[in-house]
Structure formats: C-alpha cells, structure tokens
From TrEMBL:
One of its GO terms (cellular component) is plasma membrane. The chain crosses the membrane at residues 24-46, 91-113, 125-147, 167-199, 220-246, 252-277, 298-322, 334-356, 452-470. It is found in: Cell membrane. It is a multi-pass membrane protein. InterPro entries: Poly_Biosynth_Transport (IPR050833), Polysacc_synth (IPR002797). This is Polysaccharide biosynthesis protein. Signal peptide: none annotated. Keywords: Cell membrane, Membrane, Transmembrane, Transmembrane helix. It comes from Methanoplanus limicola DSM 2279.
C-alpha cells in the first residue's frame, strides 16, 4: 500500500472539518511533545538523579508563580476578546502595554527580594529565573494572540517549537555538565524558539487602543488572573510543600510520578485547546445545542486513551518507574497508583473550567480554582507529614475529584458535564478486558527488563483498540472518516 507523501497529506488535512482538523493537529503536537519529553526526562533522571531533578522542579515552581504575577490574566482576556471578533489589533496592543507594565513590576520585585532566593543564587538559577520570566511573557503574549484568532493549529506548532527547542537545549546542556542550570537555560531557549515561530505567522497586528480596550481587558483579566492563581497553586503547591517537609530527593520522585501520570490527559488537552475558541463563538451566537454535542463527544473521546492508560499504569506502575527512570524513582510507585485515577477527574475539571471561561463566566471559574487551591494546600499540610509523597498524592486525588464535581454543579443549569454514556460503557468494558490480559501476561512473562515491559504495554494497547473498535462502530467510523479525508487510506 502506497503511503501518501507529506505534500499530498497536508492539502487533504485542510479539507477536514475545522474542529476535527485542529484537534488532530493539537493531539499530534502533544503526542510528539510527550514522546520527546518522555525520552529526555528518562535521560535526565539517569544523569541527574532524583536530587538534581528535584532542584529543577523547585525552579519551575518559582517560575510558575512569577509568570502568573507577570501575566495577570491578560492573555486569557485577550484570547476571549479576540475570539469574539472586532478590534483584535487594539486588544492585542492594549494587552502588550499591560503585560510590559506587569513584567517590569515583577522583575523589580525579584531584584529587590534577591537575598530571599538563597537556593536559586547558590545553584546559579537566579538570573536564569529573570530571563525565563521575560522570555516566557513574550512567548505567551504572541501565541495567545494567534490562539484567540482561531489559529489553534499554528499555536500548537509554536508550542511544538517551544518544547523542541527546550528539550534540545536541555539535552545538550546536561550532556556538557551544566546540571539543573542547563535545564533552566533550556526553558529560555524554548520560549525564544516558540515566540519566533508564532511571530512569523501572526495574523493579529498592533493597532491604536484606548481606555475602553484596557477596561475591557481588565474586567475579564481580574477574574481570569484569580482563576489562574488557583490553578497554579493547585499545580505547584504539592511540589513546594513536599520540598518544605521533605527533601529535593522526594520532590524529584514525586515530580516524575506526577509528570508520567499526565499522559492520561493528552487527548483532553488537545480537545480543550481546539474547543475553546469555537465554544466562545457559539456561546456568543447562542448555539447551545452545538456546544452540548461537542462537549459530550470530546469528553467521551478524551476518555478513550485515558482509561486504559490509567488502568495499565496502576498495574505496571512499579515496573514502569524502575525500568524507565531508575531504582530511585521506583519508590514513587504507590504515589503513581493514587495520582493516575486523579487524572480522570482532572479531565472533567479542565473541561468544566474551559466551558465557564468560554461562557464569559470567569468569576465562577475563579471560584472553582481557588477552592481547589485552598483544599489542596490544606490536605497537603495535613497528609504530607503523615504519609510523605503518598499523602501529597492523596491530596491531589481528593482535590481533583471534589473540584470536578463543583465545576459540574456550576454548569448544571447551562451544560450537563457528562460524556456520551454508551461510548463510556464500551471504553470501560474494553479497559477491563485489557487489564485481565495484562495481569495474565505479568504472571506468565515477568517484566524483568524494559523490552518485556514494552511488549506487554503494546500488546495490551492493541487488544484494547481492537475490542473497542469492534464494540463501538461509531468510533471506528469516525477514525476511518478522518483517515480517508487525509488520504491515509483509500475511500
């Protein structure tokens, strides 16, 4: 069978439905990013160990906090206003002005508070933190303008350039012995690469703006900022608190478990990226039936890879961490078993927050994220001293479950936050049969090396895919439709 050349595939992909096309591009980009990040993290884990990776995770936590302060919710507000149509150039310019003011203020604060960053100064990461905040702000502003204009595919390509530049630079700097500082420097290189790509293909141009544009951005941004603050705290509070109560060694182990578990949310992230601009437009036009159908289908399709990933990860968690990352990281197997189910709840939580923002309800989105942050901090403070990193994993699970429920309650009068039930039943049945198959293989072929582990994972995935496509013709037909339109198979 002749495989179409790339120059033949691209025009055919452009003929696919816009939402499907953007989701495919987003998912493909995320898969490439995940694969390259997965391989590079294995390398970093073996070279730097848990201690070295733990120091880098602490740097990322600082970067997240200061990036949040320098962002101030402006990017989300700009995306929303540009996606609605109208004075896109004026909103872009107003956002640029506000971001410049915030970045200047944050950098001034970091310089004044330099004596407090003893750990960053000693490890050579202090000045890299400043450069990362600046370069990250520029990258975020440009890519957000493209995303708001509906260029989801180009935004994902820019993000791919960012991650590719980051990983390439990090591998080189770690190879030449720069350790955690090399990982931090790679972040800056990635931001620069991604910003350059996004700038080259931007469609929104600078234009004159007035106080009405600033006020419009500010009105949305203040709640978006508070919502993002809650999300950031939820994402990094556990890392900071594990570092506070324990050591960088435990931070590294927990960070790897958390990072690996995110594989379950890949499809959901791709669909959320593709859906937001379209949902925002549909909401403005009052097309609620289209919104409900899109969300229901996206949730179901997000669970197709998520449920088997969680199931297989729980069964093989100790083997995965040992053979991929090293003996030190196998200590995080119990935490990984707890974190993986939490990612299922996070799919519903992220979808709920996306819908609230698309429906121009950032205040309610803030209520979800700030309550999640508060709950996560309280549970971490209670459970880490008692159970170590397993306590932090339990806090994450409880936070995701309760927050997903809260977002569904807030949306109940507008949009039922539930997937296509018949599809979900088939996914659960197929995952259960795959689980039995993997358990049997584990008993017969003890996974005592990574090739055996890889063979078990691949055979389980193939069995799951075959059962699911046999049980659910709609999924099979949807996949065949996309492949036919792209020219990968004959009509």
């Amino acid at each position: 069978m002749r495989i179409p050349a790339l120059k033949e595939i691209i025009p055919r992909i452009l003929c696919i439905d816009k939402l499907q096309r953007q989701t495919i591009i987003s998912l493909t980009s995320l898969l490439i990013l995940t694969l390259t990040g997965f391989i590079s993290t294995i390398y970093f884990a073996h070279v730097l160990g848990a201690e070295g990776l733990g120091g880098y995770k602490i740097f990322l936590a600082y970067l997240a906090v200061f990036s949040l302060l320098s962002e101030g919710g402006i990017s989300a507000a700009m995306i929303k206003r540009i996606s609605e149509g109208g004075d896109s150039g004026s909103y872009y310019s107003a956002s640029l002005f506000l971001r410049a003011v915030l970045i200047a203020g944050v950098i001034s604060g970091i310089i004044i508070a330099k004596p407090a960053f003893i750990d960053l100064t000693e490890s050579g990461l202090y000045y890299l933190l400043i450069l990362a905040v600046i370069s990250g702000g520029i990258y975020n502003l440009i890519i957000s303008a493209n995303y708001g204009a509906g260029m989801v595919g180009m935004s994902q390509i820019s993000a791919l350039g960012n991650e590719t530049g980051r990983i390439t630079s990090q591998v080189l700097t770690v190879f030449f012995g720069f350790g955690s500082a090399g990982l931090a420097a790679g972040h800056i290189a990635g931001f620069i690469t991604g910003a350059a790509i996004a700038f080259r293909y931007r469609t929104v141009r600078l234009a004159r703006f007035g106080m009405e544009h600033i006020r419009s951005i500010y009105t949305y941004a203040k709640w978006s900022f508070l919502s993002c603050a809650g999300t950031t705290i939820t994402a990094y509070a556990d890392t900071i608190l594990v570092g506070y109560f324990l050591t960088n060694y435990e931070v590294g182990i927990y960070g790897i478990a958390l990072q690996f578990s995110a594989i379950a949310t890949l499809a959901a992230a791709a669909m959320i990226n593709a859906l937001f601009p379209q949902l925002s437009l549909w909401h403005k036009e009052g097309e609620y039936s289209m919104i409900e159908n899109a969300v229901k289908k996206s949730l179901a399709y997000a669970l197709i890879p998520a449920l088997p990933a969680v199931t297989g990860g729980i069964i093989l968690s100790d083997n995965i961490l040992y053979f991929l990352y090293g003996a030190d990281f196998a200590e995080g197997a119990a935490a990984l078993r707890i974190i993986l189910p939490a990612q299922i709840f996070s799919i519903f939580l992220l979808t709920g927050i996306m819908c609230l923002n698309a429906f121009n309800r950032p205040k309610e989105s803030f209520r979800v994220t700030i309550s999640a942050a508060a709950l996560n901090i309280c549970l971490n403070l209670l459970l880490i001293p008692l159970f170590g990193i397993n306590g932090s994993a339990l806090a994450f699970l409880a936070t995701m479950a309760l927050s997903a429920l809260y977002s569904a309650v807030l949306l109940r009068d507008t949009l039922p936050l539930k997937p296509d039930i018949p599809v979900v039943k088939d996914i659960i049945t197929s995952s259960a049969m795959m689980a039995v198959f993997i358990l049997a293989q584990r008993e017969v072929f003890a996974p005592d090396s990574w090739p055996v582990l890889f063979a078990i994972v691949i055979s389980g995935a193939l069995l799951y895919s075959g059962i699911l496509c046999t049980k659910n013709r709609m999924i099979k037909e949807d996949i065949q439709e996309v492949l036919k339109k792209s020219g990968m198979i004959k009509s």
